[in-house]
TrEMBL record:
Species whose genome carries this gene: Octopus bimaculoides (California two-spotted octopus)
Protein name listed in UniProt: Uncharacterized protein
Domain of life: Eukaryota
């Protein structure tokens, strides 16, 4: 560090109250030509043999689940598959038939399904009105759901292009 002659201290001494030590000043060089490779290898092997084994993860941890999971009678089930836009992420409601700590067996569209609690949400109903179990609308995998502009293009191509020409941004690209 540069010494300031007019002040009598270096900037580090003024700032920290002590001179800075550089890394090469702290470490002492080791002469590798004096070390025997066989001796070094023996020391390294004995070091790794004396290392204790890693402790295993505690297997007694119970899975996390909501506290009132035993009282759930109706649930929504999350669909983790890739979805089209504007589709609901949850299917249901489904009636709960049986459950364990982490899994539920539910009746959805007359089909029994065992699902993890992580994919479920409780269904809240109004206490005054009885819950109705209507099957959710199921979309066939062969049914195509298009965004509006694609549907317009397929059904009314002349109207679609006329509408696009009226938009200021579309004029530049057409």
């Amino acid at each position: 560090p540069a010494f300031k002659a007019d002040v009598g201290y270096s900037p580090a001494e003024l700032l920290y109250g002590a001179p800075l030590s550089l890394l090469w000043q702290i470490l002492t060089p080791v002469d590798l030509s004096l070390q025997d490779p066989a001796l070094y290898l023996n020391r390294l092997r004995s070091y790794f043999q004396d290392l204790p084994p890693m402790s295993t993860r505690d297997q007694t941890v119970k899975p996390a689940a909501p506290r009132n999971v035993a009282s759930w009678t109706d649930v929504f089930v999350r669909n983790d598959a890739a979805r089209c836009s504007l589709t609901t992420p949850y299917a249901g409601p489904s009636r709960v038939l049986a459950h364990t700590n982490k899994h539920f067996t539910s009746d959805h569209n007359d089909c029994r399904d065992t699902v993890s609690v992580d994919r479920m949400k409780i269904t809240y109903t109004d206490a005054d009105t009885p819950a109705t179990h209507t099957p959710s609308t199921h979309i066939s995998p062969h049914t195509h759901i298009y965004p509006l502009h694609i549907w317009l293009h397929k059904q009314l191509p002349h109207l679609y292009h006329d509408t696009l020409r009226q938009l200021p941004l579309a004029r530049k690209t057409l």
